[in-house]
Specification:
alpha/beta, D-Maltodextrin-Binding Protein, domain 2, 2 domains, 9-stranded mixed beta sheet, two-stranded parallel sheet, 9 helices
Length: 293
Amino acid sequence: MIMVLAACGGDESSADGGGDTGEEETEESADEGEEAADNGESNDNEAASLEGDVTITGSTSVQPLSEELAAAFMEGQPDVRVEVSGGGSGAGVTAAQDGSADYGAASRELEEDETGVEATPIAIDGIAIVTHPDNPVSDLALEDVTDIYSGEITNWSEVGGDDQDIVVVSREDGSGTRDAFTDIVLGDEALVDSALIQNSTGAVSESVANDPNAIGYMSTGSMDDSVQGLAIDGAEPTDENISSGEYDVSRPFNYVTNEEESSTEEAQAFLDFILSDEGQEVVEDNDFISVEE
């Protein structure tokens, strides 16, 4: 009897109560689906929303681009604060080595003795040889630039200009721009002792803009109408010529990291953004060359 009753009960559930059970199961499934969807949305929001600090220090040539990239990144990550400071490429590499910054910014390749770190290019930059806009000289051979900066050529008349002494403007020791310029232009030659030393890209630009007889060098991305960029061996310092190699006074903009330390989630997200299409668009909008080209 017990088994019969049980069987009868089962039949009644199937016949009379089956609809209710199916509805309950359907409602439970729907609730579970909604909960899963809510969890998925929550997980996506957690992945998209970060909180913390990212620090970059180093090259003053890279600094303005870093600031623009930071501003664009923080629009999508308002709880992340990206702090950018200068100090020179050497200081940037040191900061990466000792872990005092998430990224050291260097406007040159790493030196052989700069160990324990690795570099990631974020942009390509040309180094423009600049003069005052009123200077009639618009094109120099690379060899002439070498001779000017080493003191072999001292008067503009020797390269087709006015009879005026050349005022040589250079960057300070530790500057990535100076290191790259030295490698590409000076080589084994020593910088002329009379060179006026400036400690930032802006200071070089100001010195040249205020002296019709001055010559300097700076990032092509930092040039404005206050100075003129000279053609070198007939090639203008344009993005197209830099990319093709026709204008060969160029260098990478690198973010340097410690090889033995993992990046924080926020720092890695910032670098991923820089290397994305959106980040490289910021690079190009600031007159630098994308590493994707």
